[in-house]
From TrEMBL:
<feature type="compositionally biased region" description="Pro residues">
    <location>
        <begin position="271"/>
        <end position="283"/>
    </location>
</feature>
<feature type="region of interest" description="Disordered">
    <location>
        <begin position="247"/>
        <end position="283"/>
    </location>
</feature>
<feature type="region of interest" description="Disordered">
    <location>
        <begin position="75"/>
        <end position="103"/>
    </location>
</feature>
<dbReference type="InterPro" id="IPR000048">
    <property type="entry name" value="IQ_motif_EF-hand-BS"/>
</dbReference>
<feature type="compositionally biased region" description="Polar residues">
    <location>
        <begin position="90"/>
        <end position="99"/>
    </location>
</feature>
<dbReference type="InterPro" id="IPR043408">
    <property type="entry name" value="IQCK"/>
</dbReference>
<protein>
    <recommendedName>
        <fullName>IQ motif containing K</fullName>
    </recommendedName>
</protein>
<dbReference type="Pfam" id="PF00612">
    <property type="entry name" value="IQ"/>
</dbReference>
Length: 283
């Protein structure tokens, strides 16, 4: 890939370059067969020969000694049950003992001075809020840590110091994103508490026990047949229409009684309020 000279590097590229610069360089000396120590068959011991400890072909192991004293995990990978290649060079002890030189790059200084002072308090508030929602006790909760951290960072922005805190769903870029990528609804078992869930289960069980009674089953069967054979809603509507017409005609036939001249009370006859078509007519 062609590399553009003078192009501005991204933050991720700078972090990768600094990380590669901090890693120790591999040794350049080539291992030869002449420099290796030949191991005779009579010198082999299962306690002293290991593919992990490269270079320690034979050694006297004491009881109170540390067998990993000269072992460096940077240059001795875990053994896979295979002998050491003849062309591999074992690095010297001085090279393995030198720690990698860490230097503070611009990216590291930027993270320590700008990012971490803002992010670490947000993570602390996130852990406190997660503990309130029982995230450390339950396997699944309705608490979304990314949503909380987004809302916390948005409200604690120094540019919004004098403004009123807003909810997560009221943030402009959140509304724009959710309008293009709507989320599925949260399951009901994550929204209800234990008391609310117990109340719903008990109400359903009580209703089931009532509906299972023989007299209630007979009543429900009769109502089903009545709905299938006749339009009960239309029958009730016609009944109340007839009653209202009768009451209206009776009110128009009542003669008005003369009132005295000094009477201050006026009486007004109001027809009855029509009922809903689904209400049951009186017997």
């Amino acid at each position: 890939m062609a590399k553009i000279i003078g192009a501005k590097k991204s933050l991720w590229q700078q972090v990768c370059e600094e990380y590669e610069a901090e890693q120790p360089s591999p040794p350049s000396v080539v291992w030869t067969d002449s420099s290796s120590v030949s191991t005779q068959l009579s010198q082999y011991s299962a306690s002293t020969h290991s593919t992990v400890l490269i270079g320690l072909t034979t050694a006297e192991v004491f009881v109170d000694d540390d067998p990993l004293r000269d072992f460096d995990p940077l240059w001795h990978p875990p053994g896979l049950g295979k002998p050491r290649p003849p062309g591999q060079k074992c690095p010297s002890t001085a090279a393995t003992r030198s720690p990698p030189q860490l230097h503070g790059g611009p990216v590291k200084r930027f993270l320590e001075s700008r990012v971490f002072p803002v992010l670490l308090p947000g993570l602390e508030a996130l852990l406190t809020e997660a503990q309130k929602h029982g995230c450390f006790e339950k396997k699944k909760t309705a608490f979304n840590p990314c949503d909380f951290l987004t809302e916390w960072l948005y409200n604690h922005n120094p540019r919004r110091r004098e403004q009123v805190p807003v909810n997560f769903h009221d943030i402009p870029f959140v509304q724009h994103w959710l309008s293009m990528h709507p989320r599925p609804p949260i399951p009901l078992f994550l929204l209800l508490s234990k008391d609310q869930a117990a109340l719903l289960i008990q109400a359903f069980w009580r209703g089931y026990k009532i509906r299972a009674r023989p007299d209630v089953q007979e009543l429900r069967q009769w109502q089903k047949e009545l709905r299938e054979n006749s339009d009960i809603a239309k029958t009730v509507e016609q009944f109340w229409a007839q009653r209202e017409s009768r009451v209206g005609s009776a009110m128009t036939d009542i003669p008005e009684s003369p009132q005295p001249a000094n009477a201050d009370v006026s009486i007004q006859v109001v027809p009855p309020t029509p009922r809903a078509p689904w209400s049951t007519p009186p017997r």
